[in-house]
Amino acid sequence: MSNVIPKEKQSAYQRWEMESFGEQEMLATNDAAVEHARASAAAEKERLAEIARKLDEDCEEARAKGYAAGLSEGRKAGIEDGRTAGIAEGRLQAEQERQLLRQIAETFGTEVARANELIAADMLDLSLDLAKAMLKTALKIRPELVVPVVREAIHYLPTLQQPALLHLHPEDAVLIAEHLGDEISTAGWRVVEDTQMERGGCRVETASNQVDATAPVRWQRIAAALGKESDWLES
Fold it and tell me: What are the Flagellar assembly protein FliH/Type III secretion system HrpE domain coordinates in residue numbering (predicted)?
């Protein structure tokens, strides 16, 4: 019997290759390995993503803390700088106000002193005017006030030198004769009536001396002693 199979009787055949043996098992194994690798990769990716998120969160928290700390420090520094600047500005303003008040006080003191001087001068002028008016009135009401004036004047000059003259208003001469007649005669004084003189004063003369005790001259001496000029004839 022939071992040759006719062509028409030959059936389809499967080509044999090395992979054909155990191919399914190998494919299954490969699929499992691939799946495991994929799962591992996914897990690693998730782990890395979690780490990245954690890092982002940590960085954000660090940035937030840093910002807050910086803001707080900035505020503190700003407040401190502002407080220091405010104190310095306040001290400067206080010093300026102190200087201004000192200038005002000095100016005010000067003005007060000047006003006091003016007031004092005005008061002195007023006092002199009142005193002059009162004295003139007193001499009219009490003409005998001339007596102590004459007595002082004749005692001031010695009568050893002749002639010794006593000039008086005619009306005052009558009063002096009544009150000091004997004293004048004994001392050697001669009364000279002068109608040009005002009442209330006298003028005494010797050969070498003269004393003017007339009312206008006595008044000018009083005013000069007070540093003022005041005319007896002015009302």
Answer: 96-222
